[in-house]
Inverse folding.
């Protein structure tokens, strides 16, 4: 399983997080982010369209991996089994770099209303991607929409546990799949 | 059940929607919105902090009504029964003015990435409000989080049907409660 490439891109994200937390999102310029990361401004713009997109740049990759996971689940898989394949696929693509970035991303997003909004839109986009992939498998709409929301909820809950843990070799898939199992069990006690 | 007060506030929202659709969100000023609505700029600022908040100004009211509905459900209500009380409460507070605004709000939000982001954050806020109200009733966390997401999904799905229908006296509660029933049924076929 390919891991996200480390290098200039991750240094830029780390530098941006630190600057956003230190001096605020509004006050931070692309030039400062590039300088802190030790790259040129044109390198910044080869990776990101602007400073806001930088913190959600993984969204398209996440959406693609989730949709591929759903599509590649065995033909007889239930909707939540397909979501579990998607969670394993996206979790396996996130390694130590993502785990190290996690708490800084979280702090940076928490520091800016604008970044919180962008982050909320990211969740909506991920749920839409999973829902569309389930519908493409023939899952009927309300089931697909619910399973899509549960997949994203499981990812967010598992990711939150993962980035707060102490073990640097901890496996994200374990946490996202546990969270999905918890939500599946929860669905039985909704009334 | 009190309906949202019509008047300057609704005229401002209507004017803003129309201007955003006609000439774009970025190009529209508060002065233009106030002029189109036939009020002064200071009247605008008595109702809204800025043009962006205008389109999601009902969010606090929605969150409060949803949380009150959950809190006031009978002691023995299941999580989804409490969510149904919340949906009825918030649906009953929305009348013909909201129904008339709906399609224009939808078109305005669709026209601007910034408004889409703000709208996504609104969904996240509503789900958090329902989840917190359920936890306050003693519903355990994963069940509360799932029921909160389902409540917001039911509201959005029912609202979308309501604003697209032909009957001006149509009842929003009928659609949101039908959507919740569909999601409840869907949860049985998740696998």
């Amino acid at each position: 399983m390919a891991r996200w490439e480390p290098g200039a891109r991750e240094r830029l994200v780390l530098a941006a997080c630190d600057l956003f937390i230190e001096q605020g999102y509004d006050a931070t310029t692309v030039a400062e982010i590039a300088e802190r990361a030790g790259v040129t401004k044109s390198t910044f713009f080869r990776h990101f369209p602007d400073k806001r997109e930088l913190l959600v740049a993984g969204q398209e990759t996440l959406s693609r991996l989730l949709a591929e996971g759903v599509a590649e689940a065995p033909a007889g898989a239930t909707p939540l089994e397909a979501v579990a394949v998607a969670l394993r696929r996206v979790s396996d693509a996130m390694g130590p770099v993502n785990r190290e970035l996690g708490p800084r991303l979280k702090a940076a997003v928490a520091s800016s209303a604008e970044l919180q909004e962008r982050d909320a839109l990211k969740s909506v986009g991920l749920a839409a991607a999973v829902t569309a992939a389930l519908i493409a498998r023939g899952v009927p709409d309300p089931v697909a929409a619910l399973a899509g929301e549960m997949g994203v909820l499981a990812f967010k809950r598992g990711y939150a546990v993962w980035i707060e843990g102490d073990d640097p070799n901890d496996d994200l898939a374990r946490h996202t799949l546990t969270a999905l199992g918890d939500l599946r069990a929860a669905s039985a006690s909704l009334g």
